[in-house]
């Protein structure tokens, strides 16, 4: 079954516990951390989730130039998956060190690729990583339009590592979700589609089938 991960980037952060309660039928929750350097916007720290009660898997998406600096805070915030950007960590030795560090703390390691980044750019770690996040928008903001060309990357990654998770993020709604599932996506991240809905359980269900 396709995993659904509401992104809190589009949630009302002043009522985050209620917002999390409203998406309890999902599987994961994506915490979009932006540092204002890797992307021009800043969002929140991983600690935003520290005191939130949820059964969802906490999945932190680090849109930051130095992901090493955030790992402990992600773990303190009960993250079970921590994804860094390939574009922020270009050196293989650093990528492997970061993956080992994340794993040593008991979390899964993910690597994210922007729409313009070729899959060959992660050849060095594709056999090691737990999850590949294919960005279907340019990172930095919610509510953008889905970039369908990235679905070819989904297929290529699923071919290379059929047993690992492939996640997609950006512009996911009921219509684009169908195309993502057909391409083999395992986990759909959706922010504005879910949090703009008054019927969030139905919105989540509409992404599953
Ligand atoms: C982009 C963010 C968004 C967010 C989801 O930097 O990563 O993709 O998670 O945004 P929507 O679902 O509103 O496109």
Structure, explained:
The chain is of the alpha/beta class and 209 residues long. The protein has one domain: Aldolase class I (TIM Barrel). It is built from 7 helices and 8 strands, in the order βαββαβαββαβαβαα. It has helices at 16-22, 71-76, 92-104, 151-160, 174-183, 192-195, 200-208, and strands at 3-6, 28-34, 57-63, 79-85, 108-113, 131-135, 165-169, 187-190. Strands 1-8-7-6-5-4-3-2 form an 8-stranded parallel beta sheet. Helix 3 links the parallel strand 4 and strand 5. Helix 5 (174-183) runs parallel beside helix 7. The longest helix has 13 residues, at 92-104. The chain is globular.
Question: How is the secondary structure organized here?
Answer:
Blueprint: E1 3-6, H1 16-22, E2 28-34, E3 57-63, H2 71-76, E4 79-85, H3 92-104, E5 108-113, E6 131-135, H4 151-160, E7 165-169, H5 174-183, E8 187-190, H6 192-195, H7 200-208
Helix pairs in contact: 5-7
Bound molecules: D-xylitol-5-phosphate.
Structural key phrases:
8-stranded parallel β-sheet, binds D-xylitol-5-phosphate, TIM Barrel, alpha/beta, 209 residues, 22% strand
């Amino acid at each position: 079954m396709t995993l659904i991960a509401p992104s809190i980037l589009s949630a009302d952060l002043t009522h985050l516990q209620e917002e999390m309660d409203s998406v309890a039928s999902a599987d994961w929750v994506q915490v979009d951390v932006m540092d204002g350097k890797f992307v021009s916007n800043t969002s929140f720290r991983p600690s935003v989730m520290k005191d939130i009660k949820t059964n969802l898997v906490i999945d932190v998406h680090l849109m930051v130039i130095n992901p090493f600096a955030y790992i402990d805070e992600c773990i303190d915030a009960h993250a079970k998956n921590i994804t860094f950007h390939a574009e922020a960590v270009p050196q293989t030795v650093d990528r492997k060190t970061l993956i080992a560090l994340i794993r040593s703390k008991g979390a899964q390691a993910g690597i994210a690729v922007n729409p313009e980044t070729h899959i060959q750019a992660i050849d060095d770690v594709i056999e090691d990583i737990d999850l590949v996040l294919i960005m279907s928008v340019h990172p930095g903001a919610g509510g953008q339009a889905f970039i369908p060309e990235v679905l070819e990357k989904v297929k290529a990654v699923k071919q290379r590592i059929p047993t690992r998770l492939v996640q997609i993020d950006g512009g996911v709604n009921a219509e684009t979700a169908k195309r993502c599932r057909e391409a083999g996506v395992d986990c759909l991240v959706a922010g504005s589609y879910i949090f703009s809905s008054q019927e969030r359980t139905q919105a989540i269900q509409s992404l599953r089938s």
